[in-house]
Amino acid sequence: MRRFRCARFRCAGLFAVIIGVTATAFAQLAPPATSAPWWRTAVFYQIFVRSFADARTGPLANDGIGDLQGLIERLDYLNDGDPVTTTDLGVTAIWLLPINPSPGYHGYDVTDYFEVHPDYGDIALMRRLVAEAHRRGIHVIIDLVLNHASAQHPAFLAALRPDATAEQRDFFRFSATPETSAGPWGQRVWHPLPSAQTPDSTLQTPNPDEPPARYYYGIFDAGMPDWNFRNSAVTDHHRRVAKFWLQDIGVDGFRLDAVRYLYEDGDILQDTPETKRWLREFTAWCHQLKPDAFIIGEVWADTAQAASYVTEDGLDTAFEFDLARATIDTASFGTPGILRDRLARTRDAYGSRPWATFLANHDQERAASQLSSDPAKLRLAAALQFTLPGIPFIYYGEEIGMTGRKPDPDLRTPMQWTPDAPNAGFTSPAVKPWHALNPDYPTINVASQTASPANNSGSQTLNTRPEPASDTGSLLALYRRLIRLRTGTDSDALRAGRPLAFTFEGRGLYADLRESETDAILVLANTSTAPRELTALELPDSFPAAAATLLLDSSASVDHSAPEPLSLPLALPGGAILIYHWEKDS
Ligand SMILES: [Ca+2]
Ligand SMILES: [Ca+2]
């Protein structure tokens, strides 16, 4: 008979793994679900509109370029709005990469902040998308590129004209000499003025006492001059932009691009105090316009730096790049300590404030490529992400294991909907898409993972119950279950929660115990490829093993329909994640 070896465990003194986290630093609990803003319980899906779906109908159809109409046509894939069905992914929010007019295919060089890229549609179509998304319970946030504009932006072109006024020049930063030799990653940041606009390649600077300018500042490249945030007119412009999208169009928030680089201070080009102050004021402005607007920043930095932007009056949250790295590494190398240590550090840095989890984004090698498309590792990475505290973001195609390595356009290839040649359902077969499909689309696509148990990880299952005919063992099916676990399960502890001290014994296992005001969960993961056993476990008295219920078993193809007791020794197949749950007495 299986039993807990708690008594022996206390005496043994030699444990393969010991976790003991004091909860004193986390005295402040996340607000209860009833008063929490919508985004605290949301699951986000990141979409590159150009690559998601070409419209089948209307004026934008069948030109090989994804657009807002195509996205509307595919919304039911993301969430059909019917809580009864489980055939949709079930996400409750989408983040659109920049949708403004832009000469670059990626959209981060904006020429008009108040318009929609003509390839994608127009303002009326954007309003329709927001309405159609909201009707299905999907919130919409858009990418806002505050740090820089396109070198083709009318304001920059005006500033380059020989007869530009000092006022016009002051929207950007000009200088007679490069004020810093290189940027944070060794790049050129002061660019010679384009001779096409200025035959003598000099300009009178905004200050008439200064020598003529020969250079302008752009931290990313010459095609994207940085706005001059010391000019209050720039702040006025950006606030008008926020007001337009939040109030006139009705989006639910912003993903703020490259927020580390707003203000420069001499040689210091990132994370200046003025940048953080400006962001606090901008976030307050957005919340004034729309109290539940969600403001998330791209602070591509270490945990401590990213967390410094997420304060009581700062950004709502930030992407946790270090935690993403640790999640991938843990799935890749099977070493649970990487994730355990990183999670502890993340909690220390953020305290009770939330962070956002992800595996990879549009600037990084796709998660599946980082994990060599190993099905067990893909499943483990997904389950680890969704059982971590934090707001989950999924990069489009990640849920089916789409692959992609640099250069950047290859990280952003068209969505693989079907195995059909030559365009995988992204656009009409008769059309040449804006970027070639990844050649792996015949095996990696939505249809294949929906219709059959293909791409099953092959991992062992803990039980032998028959599976419903509608379910499959695909990665996509696992994502559907994980997303519903986050959005449909009334577990605050799963989404946030403060860590509890406990101990366990089990080689190769990762474990996390945490509680909210209403519940507690125990996450158990076998990060190795071999079967492992949990041989001992000592829990706080308030959460006895006998009272736990199994919330998830990632190694089974379906959710358990009957209670599964938490009893030892507990076998975990390679890559399996189990979640046990306790309800607190109300
Ligand atoms: Ca199109
Ligand atoms: Ca800047």
What does this entry look like structurally?
With 586 residues, the chain is an alpha/beta fold. The protein is 26% helix and 14% strand. The chain is built from 17 helices and 20 strands. The protein has an 8-stranded parallel beta sheet. Strands 12-14-15-20-18 form a 5-stranded antiparallel beta sheet. Helix 11 packs antiparallel against helix 14 (375-387) and helix 14 runs parallel beside helix 16 (475-488). It is globular and about 80 Å long. 51% of the residues are buried. The model is unreliable at 1-33 and 452-471 (pLDDT under 50). Bound molecules: calcium ion (2 copies).
Summarize the structure.
With 586 residues, this protein is α/β, with parallel strands linked by helices. The protein has helices spanning 6-12, 49-52, 68-73, 75-78, 123-135, 154-160, 166-169, 232-249, 273-289, 303-308, 321-333, 336-350, 367-370, 375-387, 446-451, 475-488, 492-495, and strands spanning 44-47, 93-96, 139-144, 174-175, 190-192, 215-217, 253-256, 294-297, 317-318, 356-357, 391-395, 498-499, 503-505, 509-515, 519-526, 532-534, 536-538, 549-553, 570-572, 577-583.
Low-confidence stretches: 1-33, 452-471
Fraction of residues in helices?
25-40%
Overall mean pLDDT stands at: 89
Query: In CATH terms, what is the architecture of the largest domain?
Result: Alpha-Beta Barrel
Chemical compounds bound to the protein: calcium ion
Work out the radius of gyration.
25 Å
The CATH class label of the largest domain is Alpha Beta
The strands making up the biggest β-sheet line up spatially as: 9-8-7-3-2-1-11-10
Query: So how many helices?
Result: 17
Q: Give the beta-strand count.
A: 20
CATH topology tier name of the largest domain: TIM Barrel
Count of spatially separate domains: 3
